[in-house]
Amino acid sequence: MLIFSQAQGTQEEAGADGDPGASRAAPYQEHGDQGVETLHKRCREAMESTEGRNSQLLHKLQKLEQEQEGLVEHNEKLESILGETQSQSKQESKVEGLHQKITSLETELFEVQKNKSELDGNEQVTSGAQEMQEGLPDSHSQLPGHKNTFPGLQRASASRDLVDVSHEKPHKDSALLIPEASEVLQDRGQSPKVEQKQEDPCAEAKTYEEQMAKVVFLEEQIKNLREEQEVLCSELLESNKKKEELEKQLKESSEEKRLLLEEIAQLRCDIRSAWEQGDMRRISPALEQRENKFLPWQSSAGSLEGSLKQGVSEERFQQQEEKLQQLRQDLRRVQNLCSSAERELRYEREKNADLQRQNLLLQQECTKVKAELKQARAKLSETTETCSSLSAQWDRSQQKVKELELELSKCSQADKLRSSLQERLAQEKSRAGEAQKKVSKLQQKLKDSQHQLLLAEARASDKKLLEEELKEAREKEARVQQELHEEQLKRRLLEQQVEELRQQLRHSRETEASLAKMHVELQAKTLHVLEDEKKLDAGEHVQCQKENQKLSEQLVLLKEENKALYEEGVRLLNQKDLYVRKYNEMQLRHKDKIRRAKETFIHEVKQRDSRIKQLENELSESKLQVEKGKVLIAQITAENEKLLQERRRLLQKISDQEESPWSLRSGIPSLPSRGKTLEEENARLQDKLQLSSLVGSSQRLARSSPAPSTEDLKLAPGSHPQSKVLPPPRARYRGGDRGAAREEPVENFGCSTLCFHLPEAFFGSFGANFRENSIKMAFKIVVLKAVR
């Protein structure tokens, strides 16, 4: 505008100083200036509108790109979360497996300790029994030995009970079994020692087998723990490798970021240079206009040429602005790429921190497992020591058997000394009486032990075995008494015991051979299990490799998708110009539509106002009529209440008359007539209520419905004859003398309709339809009357 004003000032000065030809051309120049200004205004408005549209389109594109980036980031987060959850679930399953194995090892070690304590008690009991058998030939000399060994056995069993309790305090579930085991040991110690000689070797053999099996099982579990430790170490190595790869990727991403920043700086320099070039191009056409406007205007053609030049310069400016916008979009893309790269860096750093934490946790678990392995090894060494001690005790028992064989040879010598023993029998009889007293005491103790055994049997599941043992103990007590009275039976009993010991030795040798076979079989089974586990590990490794390949393929696909999206963005930028042109055309059409819509809107507003006024008038009328209907309903309800009170009063009178038989005969003919009249009045009132409700609803429908057509008005007078031809609408069937239907007068509430009264028996399938049709006809008549 300043340029045009300066040009006009120069033109006026030229017209005042120049010749009369210039003064004649002044009006033409003014008209040309006005045309140029209008053209410039239009061009500027068009430019501003196009710039606004372009900015809107760019904003939409940016939103789309941001949404796409958000989706990509969301997918990456989901993938990372899935990977983390999978790794955590695997680690948790491994840790749970280790904990379960550790608990199983602890329980097994506890059982081994328990069995060891039982074996020690059994061994001491067998030693006491052997000492008792050695003391039988020398009855007098070895009876005090019995007295000494019995309290020693009790003390040993009590001490072992205390040791078991001290070892088994952490395990509350197994603590309940300790007193039962101690009671059984005491009962066995109090029972005759000949029994224990027969039963203890079998128990020792069974416990030895169980301990060997448990030792083999513990060795297998230790091997499994070592293998799992190796697997964990390999996983740690793999995680370290992944960490190194991620660090390399971080370095590469940082280099890419640096290159992107350099490119951004170059683009900014280019943008500044472009802006400077655009300003120079804006100034040059302005200078040309000034130079041209200093010259005299010859015709309006010159002004048109100037406007064309300005249009060309403005088109160039638009092209430059489009280029700048493209450069801005490139900048935004680069910034988005930088932000995504930074997010990836943060995500990878967080991953590294999580991996380090997991490594620390795994190392802690490894240390715990190592400590537990050390404890298990120490316990294994203890079990091996106990096994060695058991083998030494077994050798001692064999030596004692040899000593018993020597004692048999001595028994042959004892035959020679029988004569001397007969002399001592008298002395021993007195001692035998004392022994019998002791036996009676032992029997009482046996009864107490039997009571304790019954309690133990209620807790345990071995009732039958204990009862058999008690029976055998009683039989052996009888044998002991016979041996005390008769020395001849001693030889036979000793021979039988030697034979039984030999049988037990054979059984023990057979059990040793079976244990060796079981050990070989268990080793073979463990080898098979180890091979199966190796195969499973190899299959899992192959699956992991396949999953890694799938993930790499997915990464390649994602990269290709990113490239495709970039190409689509370029294509969208190319299509933007076409959309801008179409948008201009659409805007013109939109203006026409808006003009039409305004006209229609004004017309509809006027109609709406008139309609609102009509509805307000109708509402006021309807409110008045509703109030009138409420008053009528209140009157009708009051009349109904009065009639009900009269009916109650009459019913009370009837009840009173029924009580008095003389008054019944006089009041019987009058009561039915009164009851009928009351019922008829109730029916009339109900009909009135129904008609009032129908009238109110019909009037409301008439007000809300549009004006009736001429056909409806023609049909209105023809409806009266139909209503007159039909019978009355409602007649109640009364159980009177004749049982016929009676017609009742119809109350009129502002409408000349006829209501029908039919008997109730008639309202079946056909009667109900007929009644509905009659009510509909009456309703139509009321509507037509209201419309009139």
UniProtKB/TrEMBL annotation:
<feature type="coiled-coil region">
    <location>
        <begin position="418"/>
        <end position="511"/>
    </location>
</feature>
<feature type="coiled-coil region">
    <location>
        <begin position="310"/>
        <end position="393"/>
    </location>
</feature>
<feature type="compositionally biased region" description="Basic and acidic residues">
    <location>
        <begin position="68"/>
        <end position="79"/>
    </location>
</feature>
<feature type="region of interest" description="Disordered">
    <location>
        <begin position="1"/>
        <end position="37"/>
    </location>
</feature>
<feature type="coiled-coil region">
    <location>
        <begin position="541"/>
        <end position="568"/>
    </location>
</feature>
<feature type="coiled-coil region">
    <location>
        <begin position="208"/>
        <end position="270"/>
    </location>
</feature>
<feature type="compositionally biased region" description="Polar residues">
    <location>
        <begin position="696"/>
        <end position="708"/>
    </location>
</feature>
<keyword id="KW-0175">Coiled coil</keyword>
<feature type="region of interest" description="Disordered">
    <location>
        <begin position="68"/>
        <end position="97"/>
    </location>
</feature>
<feature type="compositionally biased region" description="Polar residues">
    <location>
        <begin position="1"/>
        <end position="11"/>
    </location>
</feature>
<feature type="region of interest" description="Disordered">
    <location>
        <begin position="113"/>
        <end position="201"/>
    </location>
</feature>
<feature type="region of interest" description="Disordered">
    <location>
        <begin position="696"/>
        <end position="741"/>
    </location>
</feature>
<feature type="compositionally biased region" description="Basic and acidic residues">
    <location>
        <begin position="161"/>
        <end position="174"/>
    </location>
</feature>
<feature type="coiled-coil region">
    <location>
        <begin position="598"/>
        <end position="660"/>
    </location>
</feature>
<dbReference type="InterPro" id="IPR052825">
    <property type="entry name" value="CCD-Prefoldin_beta-like"/>
</dbReference>
<dbReference type="Pfam" id="PF15742">
    <property type="entry name" value="DUF4686"/>
</dbReference>
<dbReference type="InterPro" id="IPR031476">
    <property type="entry name" value="DUF4686"/>
</dbReference>
<protein>
    <recommendedName>
        <fullName>Coiled-coil domain-containing protein 30</fullName>
    </recommendedName>
</protein>
